[in-house]
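Q: I'm building a small set of examples for a reading group on sequence design. Run inverse folding on the following structure and report the sequence directly after it, with nothing in between.
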């Protein structure tokens, strides 16, 4: 084989070799609001302290005129793809699991809700 041809063959091999990527990552707070062992919140009785004690600190606290909102978020990203020098593709699926709690000025639960999508803990 001609020694001058070897670098070009190696370059061609590197350029055409596929690079694959697969990932599965989660971020945000643990979605313990899905735990069936935890007692369900009771409107008019459960307090902000009860929710923080059961679920930990929220992802976000939102202050409204006469209410406080605790927003809990868990996000999961799964994807795969190929990374080539000339052509790339990526397929990604993002799932959000949310819980939202509304409290009055006294810190008592007015209402709450969970997203319909659940991420396994």
């Amino acid at each position: 084989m001609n020694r001058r041809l070897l670098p070009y063959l190696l370059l061609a091999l590197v350029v055409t070799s596929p690079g694959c990527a697969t990932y599965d990552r989660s971020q945000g707070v643990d979605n313990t609001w899905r735990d069936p062992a935890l007692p369900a919140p009771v409107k008019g009785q459960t307090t902000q302290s009860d929710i923080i004690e059961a679920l930990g600190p929220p992802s976000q606290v939102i202050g409204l005129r006469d209410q406080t909102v605790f927003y809990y978020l868990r996000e999961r990203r799964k994807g795969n793809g190929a990374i080539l020098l000339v052509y790339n593709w990526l397929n990604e699926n993002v799932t959000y699991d949310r819980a939202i709690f509304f409290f009055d000025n006294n810190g008592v639960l007015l209402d709450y809700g969970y997203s319909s999508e659940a991420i396994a803990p």
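Residues 19-114 form one domain.
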